Amino acid sequence: MSDEDPGLSEPHPRIARIAPGRFTLSLPLPERMLLRSLLPELKHLVETRDPTTKRLFPTAYHDNPELEQEYRSLMGSELANGRLVAVSTVLATIDEQELALPALERWMDVINSLRLVYGTRLEVGEDPPVLQPEDPDASAYAVYEYLGWLMDQAVRAMTEDLAGS
């Protein structure tokens, strides 16, 4: 989604850089509530290694099951713990107005993880379908699109040149 999207455009970005390593977080209450409602589910999915998290833990050794198993036994818990720490960080900072770079990086991890889970559930391909409002997947696609838009906001904030602003 672009900044011009009439459903999500705002005069001010949701996430913006205000100084090196410092960012504002300007999420309206409904968006904070949406994210807050998604976090326990993501935590549960990661803890239980639900199949919808397969894109969060991609295969490292496609052609060697033995090496893949060894990799999973060595790194699986560390990868999952990193995701859980990110969820905890977002929960702890969801009502903040300002974030430091490490917190924003955790936010980006969570937003991306949620988007990957939704994309997996919806079997999103190159060309997402055009849905009617009554379609049972319409609200899930709306969340998926919102997460992509919010990630774009975070990336723009991270890469914004302060000298040019």
Topology:
Blueprint: E1 15-19, E2 22-25, H1 29-48, H2 65-93, E3 98-100, H3 101-122, H4 138-159
Antiparallel strand pairs: 1-2, 2-3
Helix pairs in contact: 1-2, 2-3, 3-4
What share of residues is helical?
Answer: 55-70%
Low-confidence stretches: 1-7
- Rounded to the nearest angstrom, the distance between the terminal CA atoms is 23 Å
Tell me the total number of β-strands.
Answer: 3
Q: Biggest sheet: strands side by side, in what order? A: 1-2-3
Largest sheet: 3 strands, antiparallel
* Mean model confidence by pLDDT: 88
Classify the beta-strand content into a percent band: 5-15%
**CA-based gyration radius:** 17 Å
The number of distinct helices, counting runs of at least 4 residues, comes to: 4
Account of the protein in words:
With 165 residues, this protein is mainly alpha-helical. It has a domain at 15-110 and 152-164. Helices cover 56% and strands 7% of the residues. The protein is built from 4 helices and 3 strands, in the order E-E-H-H-E-H-H. It has a 3-stranded antiparallel beta sheet. Strand 1 and strand 2 (22-25) form a beta hairpin. Helix 1 packs antiparallel against helix 2, helix 2 packs across helix 3 (101-122) and helix 3 (101-122) runs antiparallel to helix 4. It is globular. Residues 1-7 have low confidence and may be disordered.
